[in-house]
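User: Before I run my own analysis I want an independent prediction to cross-check against. Here's the chain; please return only the C-alpha cells and, at the end, one sentence I can use as a sanity check.
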Amino acid sequence: MRNDLKKEDAHLDGIDTRLIELLYDNARTPVTELARAVGMTAPSVNERLRRLEESGVIAHYRVEVNPAALGYGLMAIVRMRQLPGKMKELEAQINSIAEIVECDKVTGDDCYIARLYLKDISELDPILDSISELADTNTAIVKSTPVKRRLLV
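Assistant: C-alpha cells:
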C-alpha cells in the first residue's frame, strides 16, 4: 500500500463506490460476481480493486465474528480517566485485557473509551478492578445497537 497518496488523490466514482459496498457486505464476493454487478470485465474490476488498495481506500478484508455466537452475550462501554502519571500503565493494561475488542484514546473528560464483550456480568468486576488503580471508570451495558458500524462512501 502506498502511503504517499493524499486523501484528495482517492477519487471514487459510482463504480468504485458500488464495489466497496459489495465488498463491505461480503468481502469474499468473487471478482466475477463483482464484475457482473457493476457491468465490467473481471480484469477491469481487479485493476480498480488494486488501485483502491494502493491508494489506501480499501485497507483490509476482514471476517466479522458474531460475539453472541461465541457466548459473549453482553457488551459494555467503559470510559476511563487515567489517574495522574498512569497513562502508559493504563494503556498497557487495556491492551492486556482480551475482552476489550476496541478502544479509542479521546479528548474531553475521559482519556479512553473501550468496548468489551462479556459472557456473563460477573466477568465485569474483575476487569474493572484491574483498571481501578490506574483510572476512574464509568461503565454502561449496551442494550442494543441502533446504528452498526457503517460504510462512509
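Sanity check: The two ends are 20 Å apart (CA to CA).
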